[in-house]
Write a structure and sequence with these properties.
Number of helices: 9
CATH architecture of the largest domain: Orthogonal Bundle
Shape: elongated
Order of helices and strands: HHHHHHHHH
Low-confidence stretches: none
Structural class: mainly alpha
Radius of gyration: 21 Å
Protein name: TetR/AcrR family transcriptional regulator
Largest sheet: none
Keywords: DNA-binding, Transcription, Transcription regulation
Number of domains: 2
Oligomer: single chain
């Protein structure tokens, strides 16, 4: 026999789900500042005990992967929200890619955890939703005339990858905005096959 009623069990499950989300959100914030932050600090920020954290995430790698997956999922569904919030599709496009670049900078600081087979499988699985999100942003920019029709969203992701290579400071932001302007100058023209000059 057990003292747990269905309602008690449901309450416990809801609390566990809340704790998991709180831990992941705390990990996202703290990893952004310091990828080597102790997990005890993550637990403290989340408002849970160390035991609760380790029940959800037995290893540091488990937590890193969960935080990364959470960030990517949140970003890939954010295209509609960003487009709704901005009157300019171009501004929404820029915000979305700058947010993506911030996530990728965090990823680069997390070391070997994101080079495992499980991590690569997760990253590969995120490619399709990322392409779908960029397609929405590109279509909106085409509709407002800031991008010419015919550009491949996968090509545009490759073009925008400079954003996670510029320095993570004010100079990097300024340089990134200059490069974004250059990208949009090119995207205003319809894509053409490259022909080398003799």
């Amino acid at each position: 026999m057990t003292d747990e009623t269905p309602s008690t069990y449901g309450t416990q499950r809801k609390a566990a789900a809340r704790n998991r989300v709180a831990i992941i959100e705390a990990a996202h914030e703290l990893f952004a500042d310091n990828p080597l932050v102790p997990l005890s600090e993550v637990a403290k920020r989340a408002g849970v005990g160390a035991g609760t954290l380790y029940r959800h995430f037995p290893t540091r790698e488990d937590l890193i992967l969960a935080a990364y997956q959470h960030d990517i999922e949140r970003l890939t569904v954010a295209a509609d929200e960003v487009l709704t919030r901005h009157s300019s599709a171009k501004a929404a496009f820029v915000e979305w890619f700058e947010t993506l670049s911030a996530y990728i900078r965090i990823k680069h600081g997390l070391g070997d955890a994101l080079h495992s087979a499980a991590a690569q499988e997760m990253i590969n699985a995120s490619w399709g939703p990322a392409i779908a999100a960029v397609t929405k942003l590109v279509d909106a920019c085409v509709a407002e005339g800031t991008i010419a029709p015919g550009h491949d969203p996968a090509d545009i992701i490759m073009l925008m990858s400079f954003l996670w290579r510029v320095p993570n400071n004010d100079d990097g932001v300024t340089q990134g905005r200059r490069l974004i302007a250059a990208v949009f100058s090119g995207l205003k023209e319809s894509p053409q096959p490259f022909v080398a000059q003799a």
